[in-house]
Automatic annotation (TrEMBL):
One of its GO terms (biological process) is detoxification of nitrogen compound. Coiled coil: none annotated. This is Nitrilase. It comes from Achromobacter pulmonis. It comes from the Bacteria.
Length: 308
């Protein structure tokens, strides 16, 4: 069986969820016109990855402007489900495609870096919340828990997602391999040269297809009053992309692209997954459960439990 997949390298309309959603819908239909039945969008695309912002934070104190910056970010986040997810679901249905997309999810007073999964039937299948925000991300994003680590059965294989530097958590990768992931989606904000090596390693380790999508983002994409440490020249590149698709034996099938916004596609021979397992199956014949075992707690961990 073959599957045409796409990674969509694009930019948010930062802090404008309606405009970003409109852009996403257009790109879903464009990728579908190229035959893509699986589409992967970058981390935090809807509505922003605030690259270079510090939110006025200092050790032991916060500047008032930082609270206003957070307010803008909070107001531009989305509810799941909500109007934005309904529009993306409808676009996925019209495109006949699975869509995997990074969003900033608002839940109560907290924001989460979340990946959403949509089916070709226009259904919101579920979500994964980033377990460990990286460095300054912890200032504005909460932590996910084990209850949102889904891997979905599709006609093309088992579909799941691990976000950005979560991919440097070996136990999380192992948990996903244990769930049988075959279409491993890696929305990211990491545009370094080393990221492709990470994607290739995971493809080889998991004997799965890896689809990594990153934004191509410039200072001009942000409002004029955005305070980025990189400076205010409009053509300053804040995130340079590097999206790619990699086979289960580590072959780069598409990308990486560092030139601008684009749709990268590749035709995946899904039999390559079994071909790769021939000599390496990290949760099968290459495992040593007599020595090493991983225990995963998938129960929700709410801070308040009401008992009646």
């Amino acid at each position: 069986m073959h599957l045409r997949a796409a990674v969509i390298q694009t930019a948010s309309v930062p802090f404008d969820s309606a405009a970003t959603t409109k852009k996403v819908v257009k790109l879903i239909l464009e990728a579908a016109a190229q035959g893509a039945r699986l589409q992967v969008f970058p981390e935090a695309l809807l509505s922003a990855y605030p690259k270079g912002a510090d939110f006025g934070a200092r050790v032991g104190g916060r500047l008032p402007r930082g609270r206003d910056e957070f307010l803008r970010y909070y107001d531009s986040a989305i509810d799941v489900p909500g109007p934005e997810t309904e529009q993306i679901a409808e676009a996925a249905r019209e495109a006949g495609s699975y869509v995997v997309i990074g969003v900033i999810e608002r839940d109560g007073g907290t924001l989460y870096c979340t990946v959403l999964f949509f089916s070709p039937e226009g259904e919101l299948l579920g979500k994964h919340r980033k377990l460990m925000p990286t460095a300054m991300e912890r200032l504005v994003w909460g932590y996910g828990d084990g209850s949102t680590l889904p891997v979905f059965d599709t006609p093309f294989g088992k579909l799941g997602s691990v976000i950005c530097w979560e991919n440097y958590m070996p136990l999380l990768r192992m948990a996903m391999y244990g769930k049988g992931i075959q279409l491993y989606c890696m929305p990211t904000a990491d545009d370094k040269d080393s990221w492709l090596a990470t994607a290739r390693h995971i493809a080889l380790e998991g004997r799965c297809f890896v689809l990594t999508a990153c934004q191509y983002l410039t200072r001009a994409d942000f409002p004029e009053d955005y305070d980025a440490i990189q400076g205010n020249a409009p053509d300053t590149v804040l995130m340079r992309g590097g999206s790619a698709i990699v086979s289960p034996l580590g072959e780069v099938l598409a990308g990486p692209d560092y030139e601008g916004e684009c749709i990268l596609t590749a035709d995946l021979d899904l039999d390559d997954i079994a071909r790769g397992k021939f000599d390496f199956d990290v949760v099968g014949h290459y495992a040593r459960p007599d020595i090493f075992q991983l225990v995963v707690d998938e129960s929700p961990t709410p801070p308040v439990v009401l008992k009646r």
